[in-house]
Records
---
Amino acid sequence: MKSLYSRRKFIRTSAIAGAGLSLVGSNLPLLSKGTPVNGKRVGIIGLDTSHCIAFTQMLNVDDTVGKFGGYKVIAAYPKGSLDIESSVSRIPEYTEKVKSMGVEIVDSIEELLKKVDVVLLETNDGRRHLEQAIPVLKAGKTMFIDKPLSASLKDGIAIFELAKHYKVPVFSSSSLRFMSSAQEVANGKIGKVLGADTYSPCSIEETHPDIFWYGIHGVEILYTVMGAGCREVIRIHSESTDMAVGTWADGRIGAFRGTRTGVHSYGGTAYGEKGDAVLGPLLGYEPLLAEIVKFFDSGLPPVHQEETLEMLTFMEAADESKRKMGASVKLEEIWKKANSEAQRTLKKLI
């Protein structure tokens, strides 16, 4: 069965892949130990998530043998969320921690961009990602945007359209995508994936659509093994649990379970032609950082933009299903509305 909305309606990764260039020239001199050569200076925007601490630790402290290619975090702009208390309250402590690892703290994104070659946009608040991504894209800096890409599908579309306009490589992902168990399934370990059930915590943050804030992790696992092509979604909601069940265009069914009680864990099961596979556990951020470094070197995103955008569409469709008391919602309808809104935004930005 043909999907109701073609992959071609999404922004193609190939549209900007050709713009990606190696960030390091072969004739650049080596500097003193621990100092990055030109082209490998990393800047962080947003010090309100534990990810910025983990990435800086791995790049600046743990990487004594060059596992991550000589990339070093050299500067950071601390302001992430402006009004989410759980994020704002972390900024002073996390700022001191990255400073202790040799990172300069700057007063603006513009100042940061003068000092660095590539950017980790780590702000925990997806509502700020479009706003903070714009100067990075205008400056032509290759950028990784941590989850969620944005706090709305329309902003996600706008980010990728601007990346295309400015010819800047960008990608976004949860660390859960790069769990070895999920990657093995995605690479054919159990043959064609016939369906999957995944789970993750799904705490609610009133400033974000329900699943965007934390449920994105479990949705990312689901899409890692199922791929793009979901046609419609239904959602069952209770105070403690959410279930979002998608039907793919070829008839396969994938389900995400978001929990707010019990054990704080991530995983799932994939069902394949050659057998089933357990997904999980998450063993840390190193696999994601390794993919980010490859991306910085090549300019080639490891995750298709169309798949990232479809995940946002899936989550917005799940919210619409909740509003409709569990009725089925077609992703095509959600996409069309958001795309129309995104185009109006882009007219003001380009």
Note: The domain at 12-174 is CATH 3.40.50.720 (Rossmann fold).
---
Amino acid sequence: MASSSGSAPGSCGADRPVEKVTWHMAADFARTLSVREGLEECYACVDGGSSTACEPIGDPYDCGGYRLPTEAEWEYAARCGDDLLYAGSDDVGAVACCSGNASTGPRVVATKAANACCLYPMSGNVEEWVGDNCGEDCYTFSPDLDPVGPSTGSRRGRCGGGWTSDALNVRVADRRALAPEDRYSYLGFRLARTAL
């Protein structure tokens, strides 16, 4: 999804990542795209725009429409079978747009190397919302395979780090959480679908 918010200098255009969206706005975009394509809705949403409020409908792995990836899916896609610090490399400069090399805002997508699954850039550029609620002990009681965060919570997960993040915070293993109403010029999303 291309950005149209203009929230960061030079950040608009079809080749830029979407940014400055709340978790609810990202979920509503996934729901709207699902409806448009005749797919199952993974979220129930009310209102619209920046006042949208969404909640997941059921188990994300059982939904056939577009949705935010779970944190487990996000990490699986970022690692793509490799045990590297960043998505595609142990060299942050090769794959990540972060505070050391992108201090003026999000960069055009695909200016850094992709990971082994040809995904750009899962380390840096914009942090990405994930579908999971997140708390202090997010995964303490989760299954080992395909975990999903707790069913309730006041914060949502985000992964990947953004253009304002340092090298430590764009690692694949880095996890953070925000209130789902938060929106920043370094925060965006990517969509997922379950192969049913």
Note: The chain has one domain: 23-188.
